[in-house]
Design a protein that fits this description.
The chain is 33% helix and 21% strand. It is an alpha/beta fold. The chain folds into three domains: 142 residues, Rossmann fold (3-Layer(aba) Sandwich); 170 residues, Dihydrodipicolinate Reductase, domain 2; 37 residues, no CATH class. It has a nine-stranded mixed β-sheet with strand order 14-13-12-11-7-10-9-8-15. A six-stranded parallel β-sheet has the order 3-2-1-4-5-6, with helices on both faces. It binds nicotinamide-adenine-dinucleotide. Nicotinamide-adenine-dinucleotide binds next to helix 1 and helix 2.
């Protein structure tokens, strides 16, 4: 039987999730209802078979009239919480994009809305459910490291220019790269360590690489420096680097925001993490990395051994601390978000068809947002900040 899916914010990301992941798991997924002010844009993205989808003015009208089996929220970041709060009033399984909130007010309201809700949620955290991360967790849960005492995690993002040349540079929508990017990593680190982050100290470097004083509205095609700028489409193509290879907004323009006004995405940022048991770790993210500098993963250590994995090399290494053995396991290739998007799709379809459970319920999204907001506050105030915990009240 067809799955009647409603979508709020039918943009690029959710379009990809529906086409490549949900339908790969269950070809019966049909988009029948949409809330999105840009109907023409949505129609360009919608599959031929979904062109009969009805557009609704708001979520409540859609939920009352469209008889949905599942709901997906794929708007940009600032609207995830307001729409999810409305969705909490219905029991329909929800696929919710990350970050689940962009400020404390939104996050607390979201937690309250779901306190008594029966709406099951899959938060879009592909890293946590990716097979490589699950394998690392299995090593740790089996006692191969001993109780984990330390974690060191890195994220050298080879596609980071998107945070200065695409709408992600709009601070009012994104609110910086702890919320935009680290939300994934802090989530999977809590999963690996099997405990919450309780305190953080963070720092960030802003305006040393991207952002700048170039005029508002500047695009490469009108720029006198396109022959020499490494970010011009011509030079990106010539040097084989990442980023759009068509005309795009300048990454060094005032439109990127201002470091002084705290409206500019950071070039890189780092967080010292304290976990509930007293274990600690570090996470660091670098957005100007390119090409073979890409790396994302972690080393988790305990007295007995260390587990290291990297999603770019797609392998896990286990070192026994007290025996002369080291082993490597290699993962399969080619899946989006390292196989995590397909795993999320299995969870969501499982909720809809019955018998499945979400491995990324709303609590995972909230815990991660609370940790990211603490990191943001810490970087601004230059001090350790306690992370708000679920159920804290007030
Ligand atoms: N989980 C992941 O790994 C992952 C990967 C990429 C992007 N994302 C997240 O996906 C989100 C969307 O990114 P995108 O690139 O698809 O953006 P997008 O701009 O392509 O899509 C957003 C859509 O929301 C619509 N919209 C705008 N205002 C609206 C409103 N008031 N009500 C309903 N719809 C509205 C827009 O018209 C557009 O169709 C971002 O928050 C991003 O963080 C997550």
């Amino acid at each position: 039987m067809a799955i009647r899916l409603g979508v709020v914010g039918y943009g690029n990301r959710i379009n990809g999730v529906i086409r490549h992941n949900l339908r790969a798991v269950d070809p019966e997924v049909a988009v029948v209802a949409v809330v999105d002010p840009d109907e023409a844009g949505v129609r360009r993205r919608l599959a031929e078979s979904d062109q009969a989808a009805v557009f609704y003015p708001d979520l409540d009208t859609m939920m009352r009239q469209a008889r949905l089996d599942g709901l997906a929220i794929g708007t940009r970041c600032n609207l995830h919480a307001p729409y999810a709060i409305q969705a909490a009033a219905y029991d329909v399984p929800l696929y919710l994009e990350k970050p689940v909130a962009i400020d404390m007010e939104q996050a607390v309201a979201l937690e309250q809305a779901f306190a008594d809700s029966r709406c099951p949620v899959v938060v879009s955290f592909p890293l946590r459910v990716s097979p490589l991360c699950v394998l690392a967790r299995e090593y740790i849960a089996a006692g191969r490291t001993g109780p984990p005492v330390h974690v060191a995690a890195t994220n050298y993002v080879p596609y980071g220019t998107v945070y200065w040349e695409a709408p992600y540079r709009d601070w009012q929508i994104t609110r910086g790269l702890f919320l935009q990017k680290a939300t994934h990593d802090l989530d999977y680190l809590m999963y690996l360590m099997d405990e919450p982050i309780v305190r953080v100290a963070a720092t960030r470097t802003v305006g040393r690489v991207f952002g700048g004083t170039r005029p508002s509205g500047l695009r490469c095609s009108a720029c006198p420096d396109q022959d020499t700028c490494p970010e011009s489409p011509r030079n990106r193509t010539r040097h084989g680097t990442s980023g759009r290879r068509t005309d795009h907004p300048c990454l060094f323009s005032v439109d990127c925001g201002s470091a002084a006004a705290n409206t500019l995405n950071e070039d890189c940022s780092s967080i010292m993490l304290e976990f509930a048991s007293g274990a600690h770790g570090v996470y660091t993210q670098v957005f100007f990395a390119r090409r073979d500098a890409a790396t994302r993963g972690a080393t988790v250590s305990g007295y007995e051994g260390a587990v290291t994995f990297d999603w770019y090399t797609n392998q896990l290494r286990y070192v026994r601390h007290h025996a002369p053995f080291t082993g490597t396991e290699r993962a399969g290739e080619g899946a989006s978000h390292f196989g995590g998007d397909t795993e999320l799709a299995h969870d969501f379809i499982g909720l809809i068809r019955g018998g499945g459970a979400s491995r990324t319920p709303i609590q995972t999204g909230l815990r991660s947002v609370y940790a990211c907001l603490a990191a943001q506050e810490s970087a601004e105030a230059v001090r350790f900040v306690a992370v708000r915990q679920l159920g804290a009240g007030g």
